[in-house]
Sequence to fold (495 residues):
Amino acid sequence: MDCYNLYMEYFGAIDQGTTSSRFIIFDTEHNLKHSHQVEFEQILSKPGYVEHDPEVIWDSVVTCVQSIAQNFDLSCLTSIGITNQRETIIAWQKSTGEALHNAIVWQDTRTQDICNNIKAISELEGEFEKTGLPIATYFSLSKIIWLIENVEAVKSALVNDDISFGTIDSWLLYKLTGNHLTDITNASRTLMFNLYTSDWNDKILNYFNIPRSALPTIKPSLSLFANTTNLFNKVPITAVLGDQQASLFGHKGFSKGEIKNTYGTGCFLLCNTGEEIIHSTNGLLTTVAYQVESEKPMYALEGSVAIAGASIQWLRDNIGIIQNSDDVEKLALEVKDNGDVYFVPAFSGLFSPYWDPTARGTIVGLTRHSNKSHIARAVLESVTYQTNEVLNALEKDLRYEQEVLSVDGGMVVNNLLMQYQSDISDIQIQASNITEVTAYGVALASYLFIRNIAPKSFSNSKTAIQTWTPNMSVEKRQKYLLSWNKAIEKAKNWI
Fold:
């Protein structure tokens, strides 16, 4: 094996997601050269519980890397980046490295009672405002509290100061290097991070008896995480970004006001707000977009939708009206419209902009005329309506309308979905010619750091392979949105 082209450089990404892990290699002409993916089990032992086996996650990453290494000399890589599902938390023993419980996944809602109790702590209200996040099961803090309260091995390790808590990036970095590290974007998703100091919030930690020694050291997203590792030898790890921040980076959204939406398991819309911390008054999150070492952090507003592609999986696996996820577009196109059927996928409540944990999934507007094609279309359209609500919230916070939305994720191949998004939001949609934008984003970040290239100097290299332009009358759009708003009201406050 050799490095193919001595005049080309290569950079890689570990992309650890909610349903699978991947290792992907790109070259400096932005071509995807190698990719390997391994899916892993979703552990759903009780209603509201979503867990992963930490060792299975690590093994899946090792398998991906070793598979690529059979056809590519890893020593040819300039750098490695890591991107990951965010908010998911793991507890492991410092002395042995043994995971003490399954990872509690971002989708897990078992901690709602804990969150209700946290909301009642008046003396911490101002501290939580500094995190930029609402108190919700989505974030890591309540998951850590649950582990401390319910897992004997965690309790014992905590008493003996032999405990480490970390998001998935921390777990992978620990397995790769033996060091307990995280990056600033992942730290900003824990509900324990102070946006104004770029550090853990000691008042929150002390209140819940979470020692700093149990948490990772926070580093800038683009910085040296490791010179050598047990998987890549002397290829350095020089970037770590939460998956949605990596996607924004991959779209080269380095300038204030640039937005992207990723259509994956959920939908996640990020808008770069530059060096300004903007607190939303319309249900969005304030988060860190990225930070280059020795520079100020760049911030973002984010709209998080819990269920997007997962609703297609639900149609396939739970309801059985499609055999493959790709079948949903064909089925939906068998009817000219949704037949006044609306689907709200609030399986675990509603995230942005409502933050209503009591909401549940709802199908409304059914008549004898309704059939599986109408339901398939309603499921697809629900993704666009939820994204539209996030866009509206963003425009209210920023006080100007967005003209272009960059998109990525597995659902972008669905032409009906993308056209309807453009129509219902009255916005131009642009899809990149780079299909694996998230992995590309963190791989590119690692390369830019190792080569000392400023991200903004790269922003003029944007390309869009496909665009969708609005083609719906104002009257029809208003009619559809009115019905969607009725459906949302039916779904809210169910429990």
Remarks:
- DSSP finds 15 helices and 22 strands in the chain.
- The domain at 10-240 is CATH 3.30.420.40 (Nucleotidyltransferase; domain 5).
- The two ends are 59 Å apart (CA to CA).
- The first helix runs from residue 54 to 69.
